[in-house]
Amino acid sequence: MITGLDHVQVAIPRGGEDVARGFYGELLQMQEIAKPAALAGRGGCWFGSGDAVLHLGVEDPFAPARKAHPAFLVVDLDTLEQDLTDAGHECVRSDGEIEGVRRFHTHDPFGNRIEFQQR
């Protein structure tokens, strides 16, 4: 029986770790998690914030996830949307589609779709 969710993995291109750190670490303020030594040589990087854990794995050839996406719960959706917009990321609101949930979608620097929600 499933008891929880350990992490979500999203693909990035080879050599994209520094760009990922800028977006996920600096802009989204997620903390980088050290990868186990046995996995570190594969590239990519891991991040966490609260209960959310995101693994970014190198995929070659790389293709961004345009439909599949992680959905992160946030405390202040409006401030995050403004921060992302100020950093040049288009945010598309989807409020009202799910009762009691305010949300928007954007894309990371690699073109992967990401959703942010505030209940």
What does this structure look like?
The chain is of the alpha/beta class. The chain has a single domain (8-118), classed as 2,3-Dihydroxybiphenyl 1,2-Dioxygenase, domain 1 (Roll). Helix content is 21%, strand content 31%. It has helices spanning 17-27, 37-40, 77-86, and strands at 8-12, 31-33, 45-49, 52-58, 71-73, 92-93, 102-107, 113-118. The strands form two sheets. A four-stranded mixed sheet has the order 1-4-3-2, covered by helices on one side. A hairpin with an 8-residue loop joins strand 6 (92-93) and strand 7 (102-107). This is Glyoxalase. InterPro entries: Glyas_Bleomycin-R_OHBP_Dase, Glyas_Fos-R_dOase_dom, VOC_core.
Features of the shown structure:
4-stranded mixed beta sheet, globular, VOC_core, 2,3-Dihydroxybiphenyl 1,2-Dioxygenase, domain 1, Glyoxalase, Glyas_Fos-R_dOase_dom, alpha/beta, Glyas_Bleomycin-R_OHBP_Dase, 119 residues, 8 strands
